[in-house]
Amino acid sequence: MKIMKAFDKKVGETEYYKYRINLPKKVVEDSNLLGKKLKAKLEKGKIIIEKE
Predict the structure, then answer these.
(1) pLDDT tens track of the chain, all 52 residues?
(2) pTM for this prediction
(3) What does the alpha-carbon distance between residue 23 and residue 16 come to, in Å, rounded to a whole number?
């Protein structure tokens, strides 16, 4: 997996980007988090994604 930076839009001189990550299908389905509100945090060099 890798994090991808995707151009979103340009407003005036400011460019905005979104970051995307492809997750394994089995992991997403088993997590029961599909369609739920999530939050991400950085902890000891790891990105943690959890339910709000």
Answers:
(1) 889 999 999 999 999 999 999 999 999 999 999 889 999 999 999 999 999 8
(2) 0.62
(3) 23
The candidate with the shortest Cα–Cα distance to 49, out of 36, 7, 5, 1, is: 36
**What region does 28 belong to: left with phi over 0, alpha with psi -120 to 50, or beta?**
alpha
One-letter-per-residue 3-state SS of 1-47 = CCEEEEEEEEECCEEEEEEEECCCHHHHHHHCCCCCCEEEEEECCEE
Is 3:18 a contact under the CB 8 Å cutoff? no
Length of the chain measured in residues: 52
- 48-to-13, 16, 18 alpha-carbon distances in Å: 33, 23, 18
